[in-house]
Write a structure and sequence with these properties.
This protein is of the alpha/beta class. It has 2 domains: about 180 residues, Rossmann fold; about 55 residues, Alpha-Beta Plaits. It is built from 10 helices and 9 strands. A 5-stranded parallel beta sheet has the order 2-1-3-4-5, sandwiched between helices. It starts with a strand and ends with a helix.
């Protein structure tokens, strides 16, 4: 069975986990598709579709929501997945709802605790740098084993389905406005004495909200408050009214890479 995992990953955590999924699930041959850079996928070429992202203010990021709404599911089986640092919230439920509305048959889903990539929380000491813990990783691997069997059942025409568990706390938490992330980050500034005009911020911005003149100039109408520019600036030249020079998470940390190493 040919599969496609459509992922959105700001820091690389979600991408790393998607690579792990593609290696561990033997019943499908998965390609990876970056929704921020790869355009629109040829869904018709695949038998099963995955949607994977990080939790953004207890829900799915704007970019992933917009991406799914552009697709037609053609009644294809799909699975949903998200990483989260502090709390997952309604991310998994929201992904399932979006995919179902587009005609996909969601057959499985899971949330995995990973290190936090949201700078304000990291700066407050809530970075969860050692996540996932042993039990969380064990549950994830158990999910992958069950998911592998589900795909085998789908191929056999039995139509098996894995119940998606979100946890009591995640179910009762209120949904947040999709503009919450943007408002929370607020206006961005550049310390011109630190900026080297390298262009990394422009390259990593998934919304095309940065131009170089020659220093970064931010378009607040396009910005969605993802913190990618802040996280990836090697000189720590980008800052906001609430945060400066601390809390960066530009890529998966070493312990996460070790735990998700494919042997």
């Amino acid at each position: 069975m040919k599969g496609l995992i459509c992922y959105y990953s700001g820091s690389g955590n979600t991408k790393l986990v998607c690579q792990y999924i593609s290696e561990k699930v033997s019943e499908a041959d998965f390609d990876l598709f970056n929704v921020a850079t790869d355009g629109k996928p040829e869904i018709e070429k695949y038998d099963i579709i995955g949607f994977a992202t990080f939790a953004d203010f207890l829900g799915a990021p704007y970019l992933m929501e917009h991406f799914i709404k552009q697709l037609g599911g053609q009644n294809k089986p799909a699975f949903v997945f998200n990483t989260y640092g502090f709390i997952s919230g309604k991310t998994l439920k929201r992904l399932k709802k979006l995919a179902t509305a587009q005609g996909f048959r969601v057959i499985a889903g899971h949330s995995l605790h990973t290190p936090e990539s949201y700078p304000p929380l990291i700066a407050k000491g809530k970075g969860f740098a050692n996540s996932p813990n042993e039990k969380e990783l064990e549950r994830f691997n158990q999910f992958l084993s069950s998911f592998n069997q589900i795909i085998a059942d789908v191929k056999a025409g039995t139509g098996a389905k894995l119940k998606i568990r979100t946890g009591v706390l995640n179910r009762i938490l209120p949904a947040m406005s999709r503009n919450k992330a943007k408002k929370d980050m607020g206006e961005k500034f550049v310390d011109e004495s630190l900026c080297k005009e390298c262009g990394i911020c422009k390259a990593v911005c998934p919304c095309g909200a940065i131009k170089l003149d020659p220093k970064p100039v931010f378009d607040m109408d396009k910005c969605r408050g993802c913190w990618a520019c802040y996280n990836h600036c090697p000189e720590k030249a980008i800052y906001t009214k609430k945060l400066r020079g601390v809390g960066q998470y530009p890529k998966p940390n070493e312990q996460l890479k070790e735990k998700l190493k494919i042997l």
